[in-house]
Every structure is written in structure tokens, then in C-alpha cells.
Amino acid sequence: AAACCQKKAGEVLGRGPPPPLPPPPAVDFSDAREAFRSKSSAELARGLLVLRLCAIGPLVERAEQLMHLSQKLLGRRLFEALMKLTFYGQFVAGEDQEAIKPLIQHNRAYGVGSVLDYSVEEDLTTEEAEKKEMDSCTSAFEKETGKQREKRYSVHRKFGDRRDGVISARTYFYADEAKCDRHMETFLKCIEASGGSSEDGFSAIKLTALGRPQFLLQFSEVLVKWGRFFHLLAAEQGKAGLAALETRLEVEKLQEALAKLGIATKAESQHWFTGEKLGVSGTVDLLDWNSLIDARTEISKLLLVPNMKTGQLEPLLAHFTEEEEKQMKRMLQRMDVLAKKAVRTGVRLMVDAEQTYFQPAISRLTLEMQRKFNREKLRAPPTCHRPGSLHQNAYDNVTVDVELSRREGWHFGAKLVRGAYMEQERSRAAEVGYEDPINATYEHTSEMYHRCLDYILEEIRHSRRANVMVASHNKDTVEFTLRRMASLGLHPAENKVYFGQLLGMCDQITFPLGQAGFPVYKYVPYGPVNEVLPYLARRAQENKGFLARAKEEQDLLWAELKRRFCSGTLLSAPGLP
Ligand SMILES: Cc1cc2nc3c(=O)[nH]c(=O)nc-3n(C[C@H](O)[C@H](O)[C@H](O)COP(=O)(O)OP(=O)(O)OC[C@H]3O[C@@H](n4cnc5c(N)ncnc54)[C@H](O)[C@@H]3O)c2cc1C
Questions:
Q1: What is the pLDDT of residue 85?
Q2: Mean pLDDT of 12-20
Q3: Any keyword Transit peptide (predicted)?
Q4: Cα 418 to middle of ligand 1, angstroms
Q5: Cβ within 8 Å of residue 324, ≥6 positions away
Q6: Which atom of ligand 1 is closest in space to residue 390's alpha carbon?
Q7: Which amino acid residue places its CA nearest to atom 51 of ligand 1?
Q8: Ligand 1 binding pocket includes 422 (Cβ within 6 Å)
């Protein structure tokens, strides 16, 4: 969109095409002076102290209990002061929208934007969390009949506390509709704060905060079963094992198969595959197929799929009570309210990736928002960023969604993350008994990350419409992106490729990028001290988990403190932007 604006301006003034952009500067991640130019020496010392504390295993493992104990022993005020000098000061921007403004503006001056993330979490016991999860993930129909969904998409008490083993994300539990409304109000305030504090802000939202998780489970199961059925039909046509977008079913044979299975007569399925639902040369691909369960059509209510185990046909959608229908609609309405507010305030929404059993629904609902709101052409569009968590089928999902955006003419946006739920997901799959959804090794995860990223970068080069946030602390991944941007001719000033790191982590990656003119953002958590303690405990654990990276950061902090001491600038204010 930026390139398109420039061309038009040049043409109107009759000055021909704009001059080419100057080559972007090289970025050096090992230059401590440049990395910490925006920081006071006190901030560097705090960073060093916090990283050192994070390396003490027993302290980190019991971080939350220790924080609660110190709160009792020291009293509220002293405890808050201590936290502000250490963990809270390092990882959280402030108590509310007003308090965080100076930090946001300071970072902005050094080229670093903000993704605001209100980080207050309920302090539930494991038993309370499990009970809430069991209640909110079971439908009235299931309670009545005792019928269960597929294991992966059913709730399991042992894994009901979704906070278990998660270090990079906040967790919401459903209580009632009023609480979801309160979450929506919080997100609205967050969007307002993003709009008020910068011109190019993002606001993070989480779909499990906006409605009953039962719907996300049910909808995920529907999407996955429908996709699986497509691949089953493809195998019957001798097209097993092809990449998602290369699998095309012949309509004649498809209709025959559907009739043979008793799903729809040829006459009934005739109108399914006509006009826009019929792809290249009379074939049906996964996108055409998925459009049959489009939320905007009624057809999904009629769809049947074969149960692989029993061989029986089953309705794709489960029965909903009237109240459940209303709850589902309210969840969609809340998303709509948030997206409209984001458009009005010029803020882009960033939807968090969550567990694999919720993720198909989250991705699909985000895609619906992108379809509706990412159509604007002449300025960077308020974008709903689709979460891309790096699970085994991530590449297929990304390619299919990009292709849909091409066909329908909207702007594709994605935040790519390696995923925060690995351990929890692996033990759930092993214990409950389904295939591990996580890539087999760290190397596979990284390979998948780079493959998905490369595909989106190619798309940006081709159409200049898509955009992506590389949300990672991994230096190799950031360097890989910079290399690919250079070789594909993607200039940072086009604002198509963003980088993202968490506040208080890996400043040596964030600030050199920002100072060199690359669009880079900090995830900026905020909230009152004693309400973000669970978040702080997880930050400590994450830093302990990545010892090599933390060591590199400590070395750089130490080097810069020594340099300032030797040059007599230890007490000077941070350098100019
Ligand atoms: C701006 C930002 C936004 C984020 N938003 C989200 C979000 O919405 N949802 C979410 O889930 N997370 C989110 N995260 C967290 C993210 O998923 C990662 O957990 C975290 O950032 C570490 O990944 P990395 O690329 O920074 O580091 P790396 O050290 O390169 O990668 C660590 C990650 O690799 C994967 N991994 C590690 N070991 C293995 C193994 N043996 N086999 C397979 N995979 C392995 C895991 O996913 C682990 O978290 C976000 C992070 C950032 C910076």
C-alpha cells in the first residue's frame, strides 16, 4: 500500500516515478553501545540483575510463591517498590494506559513501536481453573447424552489448567458472558490507548477471553474433520500426499463419491460447485471445499462427514441449545466490536495464537475479520493479524490462507511465532492418546518457521499487499529475515515486514533494528503490580529456559556498563535518538 501511494503522488504531480529508496543500513546485533543507546545505566544494571536472578533455578521455579510471600512480609508498598526496581520494572510498562505513555513515546523516538497487552491475570488455584474449564468446554448436548467429541477437541480435567507449563502467554478461563464483556471492555481500552500513544500501534487480543471455549473446540473439530474428509476424497482420486494447494479434485468424480457415500445426491451437490466455488479448469481445491462451511452460508448445517472409526455418517455441526447459539453469536459480536474500534482508531489488531485444539477456529475467525476489515487500499490498512503458531501443518495453513487473500483481494497479515505451548501440548497428546501436534525437534520447528516466513515474504514481493510480524527473540531468524528482505528487494520503509520482541527481553535485537529504520515492536504488557505477578513469574522462567541467549545479553549489558564507566559517561542521560 505504501508503494502504491507513492506512485500515485508522483503521477499526479507529473514528476514520474519516485526515486528509488536508499539501501537499508546494515544491522549489527553485537554492538552494545548501539543496542543500549536508549537506556540509562540504572536500567542496564537492572537488566543485568534480573537476568542474573533468572539464572537461579530454585528462585525461578518458586517465583510466584516467593513473590506472594515477600508481599506478605514486606507489606504492599515496600513490595511494589522492590518489584518496580526489579522484575516489574524490567518486564512491565506501568500500571495503566496513562502510566505507560512515557515509555511508549521514549521507545518510539528510537524507532521502536508498541503492541499493547493488558496483562492482568486471575489468580486461580489449579482446582478452580480445572473446574471452570470443565464447565465451559462441555456443551448441554454432551452433558445430556454423554457423547464426546474427538479426544483432541474434548476437555480433559488433568489438562484443564491451561496455564500449566506455559511461559510466554496469558491464560483466560470462562466464567460467564458478563466476564467476557468485561474482557472486551479491557481490550477496547487497550485499543484506545494504542491509538492515543502512537500512530502505528498494535493491540493484542486473545479469543479465549471473548467467549465460551467450547465453541472454539467445536468449531476447530468441524474445520479439521472437513479438511480431513477432503484429503480422504483426494486419496480416492489417487491424489494423496500432495501439498494442500496442489490437491485438486475432479468435480464429476467428487459428486459421484458424495452420492455413493450418501452425503448428497448429484442433483443436491450440483449447486455446491458452481461459479466462484468451482476452481481452475473444473476442479475443486481445498479453498473451494472450505467455502462450503463458510460462516456466511447455511449449508454447513446440512453437511455430513463419515466417521473414520465407525464408518457411519455424522452431522458436521453438533446440536446447540438456544442459549449456546446466543453465546456463540455474542463471541462473534465482541470480535466485531473490537475490529470496528480498531479501524476507527487506526490501530491494528494482533490475535494471539493459542493451543492447537483451539487454533483452527481462532485462525478461521481471524481470517473472517481480515476478509471484512483488511480491504483498505491507500494507506497501511488496519490489519487483523492472523496468528501463525508453528505446528506441523503450519505451512499448509499459511499457503491456503494467502491464496484465499489473493483470490478475494484482501490484505493478508500474520504474526509468526514458534509457539508457547509445546510442553503442555506434548503431554496432553501423549496422555490422552492422539498424535503429537508439535514438530518433532527444535530444528524442524525452525525449518517450518523459515519456510512459512519465506512464503509470505515472496507473496509480499509479488503483490505488496501482505504483511508479516516476525515475533521471535531468535537472532538467526531475525538475520534470516533481513537477508531474505535484501535479496527480494523488500525495503524496511515499505512497512510490510515487522519484527516483535517482548518488553524487557532481547533489547540488543530490538533497538538496533529500530534505530536502523526497520519496523520493530515491543509487546508491552501493563497492569497493576500485584495483578501481573503470574505474568512476571513466567517471564523469569522463560529467561531461565534460554540460558545461552540470556548469557549473550548479559555479556553485552556488562560490556556497555564497563564502557560507560571507563569513558566517564556512567551517569549521563541516554544518548539522543
Ligand atoms: C512479540 C511476540 C508475540 C508472541 N505471541 C505469541 C502468541 O500469540 N502465541 C504463542 O503461543 N506464543 C507467542 N509468543 C511466544 C513465542 O511463541 C515463543 O515461545 C517465544 O518467543 C520463544 O520463541 P523464539 O523464536 O523467540 O525463540 P527460540 O529459542 O528460537 O525458540 C523457542 C521455541 O522453539 C520451540 N521449540 C523448542 N524446543 C523444541 C523442540 N524440542 N521441538 C519442537 N519445538 C521446539 C518452542 O516453540 C519454543 O518456545 C510471542 C513472542 C513474541 C516475541
A1: 92
A2: 62
A3: yes
A4: 4
A5: 139, 140, 212, 214, 215
A6: 47
A7: 471
A8: yes
For residue 165, what pLDDT is reported?
59
> What's the pTM?
0.87
Element (H, E) at 387: strand 384-389
From the alpha carbon of 206, which atom of ligand 1 is closest?
A: 8
Q: Which three cell numbers stand for residue 412?
A: 493478508
Whose CA is closest to 354, among 148, 185, 569, 162? Answer: 162
Nearest CA to ligand 1 atom 40: 442
pLDDT of residue 336: 92
Task: Ligand 1, residue 421: give the atom nearest the CA.
Answer: 11
| Sign, CA torsion 200/206/210/216 | positive
- Residue 300 has a pLDDT of 57
Do residues 180 and 209 make contact, with C-beta atoms less than 8 angstroms apart? yes
Residues 473/549, Cβ–Cβ less than 8 Å: yes
Q: Residue 180's pLDDT is what?
A: 93
Cβ of 389 closer than 6 Å to ligand 1, yes or no, is yes
Task: Judge if the beta carbon of residue 455 lies within 6 A of ligand 1.
Answer: no
On the question of pLDDT at 1 being above 50, the answer is no
- The yes-or-no verdict on residue 305 having pLDDT over 60 is yes
For ligand 1, the distance from its centroid to the CA atom of residue 384, given in whole angstroms, is 20
Cα–Cα distance measured from residue 510 to residue 112, given in angstroms and rounded to the nearest whole number = 7
> What is the overall mean pLDDT for the chain?
83
Q: Ligand 1: which of 208, 418, 480 to mutate, most ligand atoms within 8 Å of CB?
A: 418
* DSSP secondary structure letter of residue 346: T
DSSP single-letter state for residue 494: G
The cell numbers describing 397, all together, are 495453513
pLDDT by residue (tens digit) across 161-195? Answer: 777 655 555 678 887 899 999 999 999 999 998 88
Instruction: Name the residue of 107, 116, 168, 421 to mutate for ligand 1: max ligand atoms within 8 A of Cβ.
Output: 168
Contacts of 493 (CB under 8 A, 6+ apart): 2, 21, 24, 517
Say if ligand 1 is within 6 A of residue 442 CB: yes
Q: At what angle do helices 76-85 and 63-74 cross, to 10 degrees?
A: 130
* Residue 558: strand, helix, or coil: helix
